Amino acid sequence: xxxxxxxxxxxxxxxxxxxxxxxxxxxxxxxxxxxxxxxxxxxxxxxxxxxxxxxxxxxxxxxxxxxxxxxxxxxxxxxxxxxxxxxxxxxxxxxxxxxxxxxxxxxxxxxxxxxxxxxxxxxxxxxxxxxxxxxxxxxxxxxxxxxxxxxxxxxxxxxxxxxxxxxxxxxxxxxxxxxxxxxxxxxxxxxxxxxxxxxxxxxxxxxxxxxxxxxxxxxxxxxxxxxxxxxxxxxxxxxxxxxxxxxxxxxxxxxxxxxxxxxxxxxxxxxxxxxxxxxxxxxxxxxxxxxxxxxxxxxxxxxxxxxxxxxxxxxxxxxxxxxxxxxxxxxxxxxxxxxxxxxxxxxxxxxxxxxxxxxxxxxxxxxxxxxxxxxxxxxxxxxxxxxxxxxxxxxxxxxxxxxxxxxxxxxxxxxxxxxxxxxxxxxxxxxxxxxxxxxxxxxxxxxxxxxxxxxxxxxxxxxxxxxxxxxxxxxxxxxxxxxxxxxxxxxxxxxxxxxxxxxxxxxxxxxxxxxxxxxxxxxxxxxxxxxxxxxxxxxxxxxxxxxxxxxxxxxxxxxxxxxxxxxxxxxxxxxxxxxxxxxxxxxxxxxxxxxxxxxxxxxxxxxxxxxxxxxxxxxxxxxxxxxxx
Length: 629
Known about the structure:
The protein is of the alpha+beta class. It has 16 helices and 22 strands.
């Protein structure tokens, strides 16, 4: 089994969903088993290292055992948002979020709740509605968060909850683009050998699934945990459709906050390693302090353990998609400091940061916005796997509920856990945390790669048959692409991203529309472009049998021609606007074969278990803030 494939021991996606073929001509061919076998193999729990629990049956059982979001606020575990709102803790968080949303609306007259607005705003009413709740979608063992500040510190346990709603009267249900994370200290118990025994409790979960996994977790590593010391929220605050931002393929911004106790409630706290760009750019002394800190903390930055002084940090940040790290708003250190400012930084002993450019890019990805836009999925790293028992739309589901970054970095977290089991101190890792955008050396399609001889990125190569191409005009870091030209779902538009301090002023210029490149793959193929909602373009060709898998291509549903106009009119449901879906060959995906940036692995009816099609996230209803009202 590959170094990464163990993750699916606790990330079992919809393995028994019914297959359904679209009406029309049937293909005579059978699915190519290659990718399907890869997906099933990666589900094998043998030898798994339990550093994350993402299996829906186990998570539902954990909620029943007292680990629901309500527990953290003194409400019933299964409390809906209206009951949470009656608690002072939750009310203080929602009040602060509402003020931030109001400020966004005040600054943009085109921004408001509902499809009638060109710029669509998150509806704060969902935070106190009797129709909505927050479901547990992941539990993570964060031994890597251990600090030297406490001799008992063994990192954290994090409970990730996602907003969802239902209305039995209308038969409508969906998840929404918002998560809240309860952060709980993980410490060695009295008489234990510090973190070795903590790791052993997690190790005891290996190979377990479902109710057995939940029972073992509840009585093992999750037993007798203290109260949450903070909460972290991430929500899609605003979205502009591709009809408004055709060069980008749409645009979304995500509000990021950490909440710590203050009186009976919570208040916004410093965002770890996230500089206050506006304040520092305005104050030369603060910029000098930031540069001095960067130069004097190279070792900790390289290891991934550095902590920016709170005096320099922001309290609220916004990440912006698509185009991730090509946008300056997602690279806050680069928005303040130039590589030339870091001349003389002591880089000779660093493991992975070997140049001023690498130091900047490393820190950008350790900021909140940079991390969430580095190999993320629609601004998130955990959206949650689908429950087999969920009767929601088959066109509003994900085949993979965790991001490429999350899946890839878990391999590093597993190696750290093995070292801790052998007696190592997790606060002093022997192996540096990898770059968020390049957590493995697989060199798969869509992974970042080095374009120049910069030593920080020299090892970022692509596997055989792929070439490192500059698809956005970065000049230093490119993307692994098929050397012979794009195939199903591959990027087909060659672009140049012009980024500025104002993310709304960012522009994408298409240098090559890509149809000719796609026709080299198939004569009838075309390039679905950004103007239609496909960032960077995606080669597509007609197919006739939903779920048919051929090599790395899959026949999946694509929005009909009228989809954007239908949703924009605001008179029809997502399901109605998606009907009838067009069938098109897209890039196939699973946990081990992730999508490129700005795409998610969407569920395809009839596909092998754990396998889906790479699609722009905003064609998946649960990944967009608009249309739920």
